[in-house]
Amino acid sequence: MTTIKTFQIRKPIIESKDVLPAVLTIAGSDSSGGAGIEADLKTFSAHGVYGLTCITALTAQNTQKVQLFEATPKELVKSILDLNFQDFLYGYDQPPLKAIKTGMLTPESIGVLQDYLPELEKYGVKIILDPVMISTSGSSLLTEAAMKLCIQTLIKNAFLITPNFQEAQAILSIATDSHSNVPIASTNDLINFVKSLQKALGCKNVLVKGGHIPWDKKNDAPYEMSAGNDYSNVVVLDVLYEAEINEITIYESAYINTQDSHGTGCTLASSIAANIAKGLDLSAAIPLSVDYIHRGMLSMGKKLGHGNGPLNHTTVPETSVSKVITLQEDGVKQAVIDSAPSFYEYLKNHPRIKDNWKLYSEHRFIKHLANNTLPFDRFLYFLKQDYYYLINYAQVHALAASVAPTYKQTHSEALVISNIVEEIEKHKQKLCDKYDIDYEKDRGLDIELNPGPACINYCNYLLKMGRNENYFAIKMALAPCLHGYYEAGVYGSECRSKWEGSLGKLETKHESDTYQSWLDDYTSDWFFKAHQDGQKALEELFEITPLSQQRLDELVDIFNEVTLLEVRFWDEVLDY
Amino acid sequence: MTTIKTFQIRKPIIESKDVLPAVLTIAGSDSSGGAGIEADLKTFSAHGVYGLTCITALTAQNTQKVQLFEATPKELVKSILDLNFQDFLYGYDQPPLKAIKTGMLTPESIGVLQDYLPELEKYGVKIILDPVMISTSGSSLLTEAAMKLCIQTLIKNAFLITPNFQEAQAILSIATDSHSNVPIASTNDLINFVKSLQKALGCKNVLVKGGHIPWDKKNDAPYEMSAGNDYSNVVVLDVLYEAEINEITIYESAYINTQDSHGTGCTLASSIAANIAKGLDLSAAIPLSVDYIHRGMLSMGKKLGHGNGPLNHTTVPETSVSKVITLQEDGVKQAVIDSAPSFYEYLKNHPRIKDNWKLYSEHRFIKHLANNTLPFDRFLYFLKQDYYYLINYAQVHALAASVAPTYKQTHSEALVISNIVEEIEKHKQKLCDKYDIDYEKDRGLDIELNPGPACINYCNYLLKMGRNENYFAIKMALAPCLHGYYEAGVYGSECRSKWEGSLGKLETKHESDTYQSWLDDYTSDWFFKAHQDGQKALEELFEITPLSQQRLDELVDIFNEVTLLEVRFWDEVLDY
Predict the structure, then answer these.
(1) Least CB–CB distance from B48: residue in A3, A87, A314
(2) Could you tell me which chain A residue has the CA closest to the CA of B30?
(3) Hey, what CATH topology would domain B332-575 get?
(4) How far apart are CA A127 and CA A27, in angstroms?
(5) Among B30, B31, B233, B248, which would you mutate to test the A interface (most chain A Cβ atoms within 10 Å of its Cβ)?
(6) Which chain A residues touch B22 with a CB distance below 8 Å?
(7) What is the ipTM of this complex?
(8) Along the 576 residues of chain B, how does pLDDT read in single tens digits?
(9) Mind telling me how many Å the CA of A294 is from chain B's nearest CA?
(10) Measured between alpha carbons, how far is residue B433 from residues A286, A516, B516 in Å?
(11) For residue B237, what is the DSSP state?
């Protein structure tokens, strides 16, 4: 007798529909999965971008050797590119295909791809070219003649090329027809080398990877391997030259002493391509990508393969530069201090934020409420939305508590949650029992509360920050609600005083009293203290946190985005 | 003048080194990235398994058509498989290669692979075979003759085959040389069809996917498309037959009405293969994989491609069956209720847990402490470890707060955090000032506290649960600490009373008093109340949560694992 069981699979609730940018990798296949299009696809997925492929050659290889190699016929390469461009580049307002990453190229694929260069330029597709010449296991993958062709066509038109130090030397030799390597004895030599490479090639940006030339930090010179195995002062320097702005950026990172580096080159380039496709600046993309490689190498629990093992591509990449970079840039914080009496004042008066902040803290909703011209059913709708919001707001404070650097901060977030719960209860008891809003239903029955899109978007944004960001950034996302409600309360109260005598007529006195009491709540001593404590906490975080310009911009963006979400929250109440 | 900037990239702190199981996909390449090895690799990565490839054919295709097709030569297929098996199967105690997923096969690849079947059998590699015959865009991908060969060789030896309904009909026709399709009018017909398919093929397990035969739940019959577009009663039934245990499992899920299903077949099979490689049972793997496909379809914000669009492979798969399945199995909860007075009693007396619980709650550490034979420096070491632990423990309560189903539960977690902070402060003030332990340093200086491996493992396990599990399971992970310390306190106090008069000699009376006061803390009214409240909360969660046997087992496993982590925590203190 057969046993029969039935299960019902729940339909998932998808929080936000992200648009996936697409990246095309043009490279060989590494059947052992650590390099080639395999590594690229794994990397794209880890970064949340959609991967397309054009396989230039099949190889039979593993972590020890490359055994067979079969180049893809020219007409197949052409057909693949045609179909991919037809489907992911042409016929869109905003084409999903943002970047192309190239790895191992063949003369066939170089020939086909060069014909598309004008089209790619026209559509703004950025080419990140990793000039693969030799595999980690030692096989030669591209002839000098093919590299010469590549230099004359693709490299010249590339957005970025990412040679390691050896490849950079070889390419410079080929490009300049010189047969001696440039000697490197100091950081200064390295900088000049990278600049001369860019000049010889004509591509927009060059990143020379330093993994093959470990650096002795103490003596500012290449590390002498004969000096023994003391790696305490050894670092890796990756050097970026951005020709258009004539800027060198040196990324100093840990030297990880391992033989298991199969595919690290491919992976770095595809991680950069993914970050570029997501809209990051090159200078922000690179440290995140270096960090991704580090994570991949360090999290490879048990070595895979019997040769140069691959890395773990499945680690979750960091999305914030500040989590990856420790050094603060000189002057960034001083500029903030010089321009405003506090970090909070700096934020709300920031050129990008100022107008939005005014839109929020002096919102039409507040004016109507102050003037008794807000229809009461709109106010009740707002309270429902706010109830839903506060539950999420409490949860995001819990997420902040879970990543707070000190247990005292964890504790203070827990205390804030208690305050929010008090606020939720206040909504329930004071205002709503009379108006037949069923607040007994908890989150399991969200649908009853029927939160609008602006409310849902706002909550989802906060939850996303809470799950992915560090403590400072989460606090930044939580700040506009706290401070804006205080300021809106003050603004509303002023309006109401000014307009006293000519206020609009609501149906009952109770309704008018309710508006007054709402304004009173947010100008109360209790809320003023919360507003002040919040400012103090932000100020302390600003003081102790190293900041680069990039990170400061990220924080400003978060504050601005949440300010706009607040504006839309009230817009929706009025325009529903 | 070139601007020069330097940044230091932080070395990431990797919490746990996971071992990656490997899965090999033997399939064609889909250059547009939605199906084939591209979809497989994306899926493997999303599931945290390492992907290997053997590309059976290159295709030029997109979401609209397959334009060119070039089969990989037989010797290349053979070389790829050889190298992959050499590197990922042979020469290990526990080979990383756990499963092979096959997609589009060619006569060449079928021929090569069949020679390896005895080897794969020997090493326990499971074959998940997706019998691809026709692409979503309508191209025929395998001839009837090749399918016949496949049936006689690979399918017979497969762990699982995953045809959709049309493919299942075609395969049954080919296998039985019959030319009429089996008529399906009821669930019963469907069950008999799946059983007869398995019988005809001889493979271990068969999953017939129901996406192509939407089901009218009300009438228990295939949905008549002519009946209009009312999908309210329409579901998809995926039917699994496990021949060895003679068990049919029907997974009922939402019918998602979309044309954008390019690659869903490949993706389901590779998701199942990944879940199997991670050690899941087939019956647990399937709902998680169906859910992954749903998430992939529903989270595709903006359609990609101009034809049948692909899904979003980058969504994070659920790891817990209970989050995916809603129906509770009859009798599962009743069996718990019948066997124990409370869920807590059920857990600690569970056959898998009972001995471990005794090892924990009557640990040698407690006996030594009760008997004054615990060296005081060991106790101080324990306090340091416990301090580090409590900070993490508070954070995991914060994570519980962030996913609690009701705001009241969020609040109660916040109150627990306050209690834990009190406990941390107690450690600092009462006990340790005298003994020169620097507790002023917060988490930024963990290294000073020097937590041991057992402590770190325990904390990391809790954080992992906190970040990935639902509220019930997180509470389950937090429970052994709370309840075990109460029971250990009671046990220790009893021992101390019994042994009074013959207690060991510590250096000072203060040390003995400290031990007494430690035991008093955990038998105090305050802690007894926490112990009781915790039991009550567990009981309530047990009452309201639907449970299948699978999920109950998961919860028991969590409780058991944490009990063992507690044992190791104290072991380390003694044996350090």
Answers:
(1) A314
(2) A53
(3) Heme Oxygenase; Chain A (1.20.910)
(4) 13
(5) B31
(6) 33, 304
(7) 0.74
(8) 888 877 778 777 665 556 789 999 999 999 999 999 999 999 999 999 999 999 999 999 999 988 999 999 999 999 999 999 999 999 999 999 999 999 999 999 999 999 999 999 999 999 999 998 876 666 676 788 888 999 999 999 999 999 999 999 999 999 998 877 889 999 999 999 999 999 999 999 999 999 989 999 888 999 987 656 777 789 999 999 999 999 999 999 989 888 888 899 999 999 999 999 999 889 889 999 999 999 999 888 788 899 888 988 988 888 777 677 765 667 888 999 999 999 999 999 999 999 999 999 999 999 999 999 999 989 988 988 898 899 999 999 999 999 998 888 999 999 999 989 888 887 776 655 555 554 444 433 333 567 888 998 899 899 989 988 889 999 999 999 999 999 999 999 999 999 988 888 888 898 999 899 999 999 999 899 999 999 999 999 999 888 888 789 889 999 999 999 999 999 999 986
(9) 7
(10) 47, 52, 18
(11) E
CB within 8 Å: A252 and B6: yes
Are B80 and A31 in contact (CB < 8 Å)? yes
In DSSP terms, A66 is beta-bridged to A61
Number of Cβ atoms within 10 Å of the Cβ of B180: 7
Spatial CA neighbour of B321 closest among B474, B475, B470: B470
The distance of B26 to chain A (nearest Cα, Å) reads: 10
The minimum CA-CA distance between A231 and chain B, rounded to whole Å, is 14
Tokens at residue B65, please?
A: 């058509």
Q: What b-and-e string marks burial along A198-237, b requiring 16 or more CB atoms within 10 Å of the CB?
A: bebbebbbbbbbbbbbbbbbeeeebbeeeeeeeeeebbbb
pTM, rounded to two decimals: 0.75
- The answer to whether the CB atoms of B248 and A313 lie below 8 A apart is no
Burial of A486 (0-12, 13-18, 19+ CB in 10 A): buried
**Within chain B, what is the greatest distance between any pair of CA atoms?**
92
| Domain range annotation of chain B | 22-208+258-319, 332-575
Which residues on chain B are in Cβ contact (under 8 Å) with A232? Answer: none
Residues in B closer than 8 angstroms to A14, CB to CB, are 295, 298-299
Using the beta-carbon criterion (under 8 Å), do A60 and B49 form an inter-chain contact?
no
Neighbours of A433 (CB within 10 A): 10
Task: Give the one of A7, A287, A310 whose C-beta lies nearest to B249's C-beta.
Answer: A7
Contact A402 B466 (CB under 8 A): yes
Angle at A468 (CA atoms; ends A465, A472), nearest 5 degrees: 65
Task: Name every chain A residue with its beta carbon within 8 A of the beta carbon of B408.
Answer: 421, 442
Rounded Cα distance between A541 and A557, Å, is 17
Using only C-alpha atoms, what is the Rg of chain A? Answer: 29
Instruction: Residue B489: name the closest of B516, B522, B514 by CA.
Output: B522
Q: How far is B86 from chain A (nearest CA, A)?
A: 8
Q: From chain A, pick out residues whose CB is under 8 angstroms from the CB of B18.
A: 299, 301, 312
SS3 A18: coil
Written out in words, the top-level CATH class of the domain with range B22-208+258-319 is: alpha beta
List of residues 6+ apart from B431 with CB closer than 8 A: B383, B514
Chain center to CA of A237: 23
Helix (H, G, I), strand (E, B) or coil at A249: strand
**Which of B3, B31, B466 is opposite residue A53, by nearest beta carbon?**
B31
- Location of structure tokens 């950025």: A126
Cα B465 to Cα B472: distance, rounded to the nearest angstrom: 11
Of the partner residues B302, B313, B443, the one whose CB lies closest to the CB of residue A405: B443
Distance CA B494, CA B270 (A): 56
Greatest CA separation found in chain A?
Answer: 92
